[in-house]
Structure formats: structure tokens, C-alpha cells
């Protein structure tokens, strides 16, 4: 016999699943039509439900956007947590964090919401999203800075590099389609490897730097002169 607490837990679980479905539909609408061009009715039509049914789960379009960003940031922070727990060099952890974020935003949020622009959220909610976003960005910068300090990455400006990485990562959400030919997992692996590979020192990079310090010229063929 199911107890009241079991029924309550089951009801909460169903509520969370439906809210996640709402966020997926909303993200598709926002990315397709823009936040200001999307209405609650558009989201309801995407879900094939009435506006009244939608309002049972969310209070406004602003709340939907806020929840979309919170869900995306939750995934980003979880990716960092798992990457840190797995250990390894800075490059391995950065690749793992990016891979997790890309894969799970494409799978769980079906693309997520690409950008947060001024005027989309009220001041209070906007500050909450920006605070968490900044925390995520700073933790990625710390990984890049660690990689530079330990010689894993070439010298660079971590702030600029992370901006470039997140620009590429967030743009996936503008063109990704769950019905496309490439699986979310493969997209995530490709992007994460590509973005981190551009930072990594190669054997020739180290050789050239060492040779410059020693006053030795390395030719294109690899010999010294």
C-alpha cells in the first residue's frame, strides 16, 4: 500500500519532470524567436497544452527564462564538480567540465538558452543569474590559469580564453537540433577536445621555447642551426 509520503514524493517527481519539459520547450522558443518575440502562448503551443495548464507550473515568461538559466548553470557547476573529483591535469579537468556542460545542456535542456541580454529579466533575477554565471566563469578561468602555471597550456589570458570558449559553447544552443545527425555526446566530445587542444603545449612548442632560452635556432625540418 502506498503511503501518503510516497504519493507526495511521486507527485513532486512528476512535477519536476513536467517543469523540465516546459523548460525544454521554452528554450526552443527563445532560441528560435528570441525572448521578447516569444509569448507564453507560444510555449503552450509548443507543448500542445493550454495557457492555463502552463500557468499551473510557472507564473510568468520571466520565471521560465530564469529557470532555464538556473538549470543551465546547475549543469555547468555539476560538470566542474565532477571534473574536480576525477582529478588529472588542468587540461583533462577543463575538457571534462566543458564536455559535461555541452552534452547535458543539449540532452537535458534540448539546447538551453543561449544568451542573457539586458532587459530580459528584472534586476533581482538578473543579478542572481549574473552572480552564478560569474562564479562559473571564474572557476573555468582558474583551471586555465592552473594549466598555464603548470606548463600544460601555452601562456595566455585566462579571462579572454574563457570568454572565447563560452562564446563557442553557448552558440551550440543556437543551431543544435535533437533531430540532427550528430548525437549530443559526440558534439560535446568534439567541441571540448577542440577548445582545449588549442591551449595545450605541443612537443615542438616546448622544444622551441627551450631552444630560444638556450640561444639555439630550430629549423623548419626540426634540426638546429
What's the SSE blueprint?
Layout: H1 4-33, H2 40-47, H3 51-55, H4 61-86, H5 90-108, H6 123-149, H7 158-175, H8 184-197, H9 203-214
Helix pairs in contact: 1-2, 1-4, 4-5, 4-6, 5-6, 5-7, 5-8, 6-7
Task: Report on the architecture of this protein.
With 225 residues, the protein is mostly helical. It has a domain at 62-214: Orthogonal Bundle (Tetracycline Repressor, domain 2). The chain is 71% helix and 0% strand. It contains nine helices and no strands.
Sum up the overall morphology in one term: elongated
Mean pLDDT: 82
Number of helices: 9
Instruction: Give the termini separation.
Output: 84 Å
Q: Please give the largest β-sheet.
A: none
Rg over alpha carbons: 22 Å
* Element string (H = helix, E = strand): HHHHHHHHH
Uncertain segments are 216-225
CATH architecture label name of the domain at 62-214: Orthogonal Bundle
**How is the CATH topology of the domain at 62-214 named?**
Tetracycline Repressor, domain 2
CATH homologous superfamily (4th level) name of the domain at 62-214: Tetracycline Repressor, domain 2
- Derived structural class: mainly alpha
What's the β-strand tally?
0
Helix content: over 70%
Strand content: under 5%
Name of the top-level CATH class of the domain at 62-214: Mainly Alpha
Features:
single chain; 225 residues; mainly alpha; disordered C terminus
How would you sum up this structure in a few lines?
The protein is mainly α.
Amino acid at each position: 500500500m502506498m503511503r501518503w509520503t510516497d504519493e507526495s514524493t511521486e507527485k513532486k517527481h512528476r512535477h519536476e519532470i513536467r517543469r523540465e519539459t516546459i523548460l525544454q520547450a521554452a528554450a526552443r522558443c527563445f532560441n528560435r524567436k528570441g525572448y521578447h518575440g516569444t509569448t507564453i502562448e507560444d510555449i503552450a503551443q509548443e507543448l500542445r497544452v493550454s495557457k492555463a495548464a502552463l500557468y499551473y507550473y510557472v507564473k510568468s515568461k520571466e520565471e521560465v527564462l530564469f529557470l532555464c538559466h538556473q538549470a543551465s548553470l546547475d549543469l555547468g557547476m555539476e560538470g566542474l564538480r565532477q571534473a574536480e573529483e576525477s582529478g588529472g591535469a588542468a587540461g583533462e579537468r577543463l575538457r571534462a567540465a566543458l564536455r559535461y556542460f555541452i552534452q547535458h545542456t543539449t540532452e537535458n535542456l534540448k539546447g538551453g538558452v543561449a544568451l542573457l541580454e539586458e532587459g530580459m529579466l528584472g534586476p533581482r533575477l538578473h543579478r542572481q543569474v549574473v552572480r552564478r554565471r560569474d562564479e562559473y566563469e571564474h572557476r573555468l578561468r582558474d583551471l586555465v590559469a592552473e594549466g598555464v602555471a603548470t606548463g600544460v597550456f601555452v601562456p595566455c589570458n585566462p579571462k579572454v580564453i574563457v570568454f572565447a570558449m563560452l562564446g563557442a559553447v553557448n552558440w551550440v544552443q543556437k543551431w543544435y537540433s535533437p533531430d540532427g545527425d550528430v548525437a549530443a555526446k559526440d558534439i560535446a566530445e568534439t567541441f571540448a577536445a577542440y577548445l582545449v587542444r588549442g591551449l595545450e603545449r605541443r612537443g615542438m612548442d616546448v622544444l622551441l621555447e627551450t631552444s630560444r632560452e638556450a640561444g639555439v635556432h630550430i629549423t623548419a625540418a626540426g634540426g638546429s642551426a
